[in-house]
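Q: Mind making up any chain with structure tokens?
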Amino acid sequence: MPELPEVEALREFLDTHLVGRRIARVMPLAISVLKTYDPPLGAVEGESVTAVDRHGKWLDITAGGLHLVTHLSRAGWLQWKDEFPAAPPRPGKGPLALRTVLADGSGFDLTEAGTTKRLAVHLVHDPAEVPGVARLGPDPLAEDFDRAAFAAVLAGERRQIKGALRDQSLIAGIGNAYSDEILHAAQMSPFKPVQNLGEAGTDVLYEALRSTLGDAVERSRGLAAGRLKSEKKSGLRVHGRTGEACPVCRDTIREVSFSDSSLQYCPTCQTGGKPLADRRLSRLLK
């Protein structure tokens, strides 16, 4: 799933390629992709793009005073095209979900792999009309998201740290992969309760969050959209690397599996050398 660093890189890419250009056509090609009907998609056709913004993991393209707001979900992606085939695409065939064509013939496709269709596109007058945007917590890379703001977000939380970091209503933009990376950098168990962090733990976690996300954004900056997936994978230290050696201590990276996801961690760096039990088989070790 694209998370804050990749979506920010897409925002910068689209800001360069879209702003000032006129939208010729917007074509939804999957029944599930379009989540709004008023105003109709045709309302942005003929309008010039004036801004591209990001809200957590959401992309927001402004044209004609309207906002085309997109969430790529787990299996969605954006593919830039300098030109399109002459024949129009066939709705419902393959991963293509939505096509946006500019007046100069370039544009982008939104695609979604797999059978579970969660990619979402909204056309609204205000991004806050999109429920997923309206509930977002603060952006963790915003200038005003300092250590005090981070502590305020966590105040009263009694969940495990992993779950808190992934909650978009607490902090916008962090998903499964970067929460693993942040916790590895902080040398913390994913199952440590938030209320047990203390002042020192909050300091460490805040610094790990800012540095991990900031470094990932810098690695992705300036890359073409098609290269962002491979850049993300190459930059991850523990997530998706079960069985490999930890780059810090060389211990074997372990995994805990859930019904629809998994997490990865280093026992030596994060859990005092103790492997965490798989949640599906036994009680979690704290």
Remarks:
- The CA atoms of residues 43 and 139 lie 30 Å apart.
- Residues 281-286 have pLDDT under 50 and may be disordered.
